Amino acid sequence: MSISTADVIVTSPGRNFVTLKLVTSDGVVGWGDATLNGRELAAAAYLRDHLVDTLIGRDEDRIEDTWQYLYRGAYWRRGPVTMAAIAAVDMALWDIKAKKAGVPLYQLLGGASREKLRVYAHASGNDYAALSQAIRGYVEEGYTAVRIQTGVPGLDSVYGVSATAKPGEKYDYEPAHRSARPDEEEWDTPAYLRHVPTIFEKVREEFGPELRLLHDGHHRMSPIEAARLAKSLEPHDLLWLEDATPGEDQDAFRLIRQHSTTPLATGEVFNSVYDYQTLITERLIDYVRSAPTHTGGVTGMKKLLDFAGIYGIRSGLHGPTDVSPIGMAAALHIDLAIHNFGIQEYMPHSDLTLETFRTSYTFDRGFLHPGDTPGLGAELDETLAAQHPYTPAYLPVNRLLDGTLHDW
């Protein structure tokens, strides 16, 4: 048997998604996710213009060979666009293989290593009252781990903080605004460093020691600033401090480690095992944060997590709503199978998204399960997808108070 057709579908049911549909000569359909927030059309063009024609006639069962063909054969390796495109192909091939076998994907990855997957929610608020209400709503839903993001006095808006979400409400927080160019936000690192530890102190006082707390720095600190924050948060026993400083300079994490025992997570903007090489071999992080959608799919992510597991580093896979439900399903099957699972990020997609993408994964009192539908258990309704055309949308950019463009 072989791949007979390959179609790239761009749709926007609430936000933009890029989906690959592969069909075999005997009619089995496989789905893959290549969504790249703010660069969706680049990933779609890579698939349409460079990969689709090379897939027709290939044996759908040769997943590893196809992965190597797309990765090594292109000369231009790695990078988010390339790896998102490869991911879509890889997911679709695994979806096909599991459907042909009549089993959920995790059974082909070694079977389940656990019964369910602990997830963490996103709680945020412009002030402590709003944040507290949001945390309480998630605790009442059964979450045992919550990411804490807060507004900063003097700043009108802060990336990662929703001013509109209601506590306990399923929402699809979309920081990528639909416009022809990105919004610009102001940033004040000293104010942030002063404010965040006071928020965590209040959260611990109100919610006690058992609730696992996380925080995302969104790459906005220098290494020494990140070390200062990590040290100041030690009394509050974080599950992790995420993306404390830009990850391109892997050596920078040595400085944070020298000053603090707060666990560290990074990698949602990384695209291959090579981006982590120093971080993993020197044990400079505790959790891997990539998504299968941006890291070469199931095959690429398994290579990365098997490498991390040798060094006692666990998974904390990226699970935002700008990864489609197909990409989320792929992450959950990997989570269930691997030994070094840590926790899974979970932002529920909007009802509109979940009408367009049908899924079999389920949430129950702070835990997810990928379900036992053969394959990934996620697929696109092409009729509904056609009703939601692509609309340009971009994540904001960050500037210091003097106007200097800054990391985020």
UniProtKB/TrEMBL annotation:
Record-linked SUPFAM superfamilies: Enolase C-terminal domain-like (SSF51604), Enolase N-terminal domain-like (SSF54826)
GO biological process: amino acid catabolic process; carbohydrate catabolic process
Pfam families named among the record's database cross-references: MR_MLE_C (PF13378), MR_MLE_N (PF02746)
Single GO term (MF): magnesium ion binding
Residues of the Mandelate racemase/muconate lactonizing enzyme C-terminal domain: 128-263
Membrane-spanning intervals of the chain: none
Alphabetical list of NCBIfam families matching this protein: ManoateDhtManD (NF043051), PRK15072.1 (NF011654)
Annotated protein name in UniProt: D-mannonate dehydratase
Species name: Saccharopolyspora flava
Source species taxonomy: Bacteria, Bacillati, Actinomycetota, Actinomycetes, Pseudonocardiales
